[in-house]
């Protein structure tokens, strides 16, 4: 039986520099997009511990759900704010495991990856130029846009939005907690404080490994009807577990549902639930 830990796994997903840039087949073919807008395959880079008896690690499921859109690349000109999301893994026996992921961007230090991205842009620009440059004997096409060679150059400049000599390349990376219960707010704070510790110019009071060890091995699940307070990197983190006589744990802000769906849709959804209609939510 499970020993009642707060978290079972700490997972890191991102770019595997050994395998390089692999197109993400699950996202469909997107070769018409510029390379920075394409999605690439992410990998589970590390997990701690390696495995636990009561919650076998599903690498394929965790890897896909941590980064459902695959790897994303950006430059210094793009917004790179961290994004948080949650997911559930439901097994064949109906048991559930909860995942909480913080995705952020870090600078690509591998010269091979930067060169590969530059090569993809050269190929993309050349293909675009071949497909969209009018024939040299088409005088009307040339006269309508000015000089044909000038048009070609301007299109190259327009789509050459990554230059290895000028731009800094960033790639998405994800840190994740796999937990037996859905303590969303507490997990979000843990991950945000870990990310802050990595990006802060001042080192945290203790090595990062000690905080990860603490959350995996020393922080228990709170008993039913009780609260739990434990130390994060920069401050205390509190979570509360409802008693057996209360409604089940639901640690998600209802405000976001109204912001995403609107009042009318929420009322309609609630009505459908009361009438026991089948409900399907479709999202990009």
From TrEMBL:
GO molecular function annotations of the record: guanyl-nucleotide exchange factor activity; small GTPase binding
Any one of the GO CC terms: cytosol
Signal sequence segment: none
GO biological process annotation, one example: retrograde transport, endosome to Golgi
Pfam family, one: uDENN
Ranges where the UDENN domain occurs: 24-284
Keyword Membrane: no
Keywords assigned: Guanine-nucleotide releasing factor
Entry annotated with the keyword Ligase: no
Official protein name in the record: DEN5A protein
Species whose genome carries this gene: Chroicocephalus maculipennis (Brown-hooded gull)
């Amino acid at each position: 039986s499970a020993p009642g830990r707060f978290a079972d796994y700490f997972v890191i997903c991102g770019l595997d520099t050994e395998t390089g840039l692999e197109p993400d087949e699950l996202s469909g073919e997107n070769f018409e997009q510029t390379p920075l807008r394409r999605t690439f395959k992410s990998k589970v880079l590390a997990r701690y511990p390696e495995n636990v008896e009561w919650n076998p690690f599903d690498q394929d499921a965790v890897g896909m759900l941590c980064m459902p859109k695959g790897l994303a690349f950006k430059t210094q000109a793009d917004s790179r704010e961290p994004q948080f999301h949650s997911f559930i893994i439901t097994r064949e026996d109906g048991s559930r495991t909860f995942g909480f992921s913080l995705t952020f961007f870090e600078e690509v230090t591998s010269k091979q990856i930067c060169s590969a991205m530059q090569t993809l842009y050269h190929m993309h620009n050349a293909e675009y130029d071949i497909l969209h440059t009018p024939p040299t004997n088409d005088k009307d096409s040339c006269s309508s846009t000015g000089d044909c060679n000038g048009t070609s150059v301007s299109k190259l400049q327009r789509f050459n939005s990554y230059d290895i000599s000028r731009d800094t390349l960033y790639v998405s990376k994800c840190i994740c907690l796999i937990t037996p219960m859905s303590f969303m707010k507490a997990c979000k704070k843990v991950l945000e404080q870990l990310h802050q510790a990595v990006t802060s110019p001042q080192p945290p009071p203790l090595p990062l490994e000690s905080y990860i060890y603490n959350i995996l091995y020393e922080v228990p699940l709170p008993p039913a009807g009780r609260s739990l307070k434990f130390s994060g990197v920069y401050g205390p983190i509190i979570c509360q577990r409802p008693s057996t006589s209360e409604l089940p744990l639901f640690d998600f802000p209802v405000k976001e549902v109204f912001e995403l769906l609107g009042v009318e849709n929420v009322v309609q959804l609630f009505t459908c639930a009361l009438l026991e209609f089948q409900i399907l939510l479709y999202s990009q």
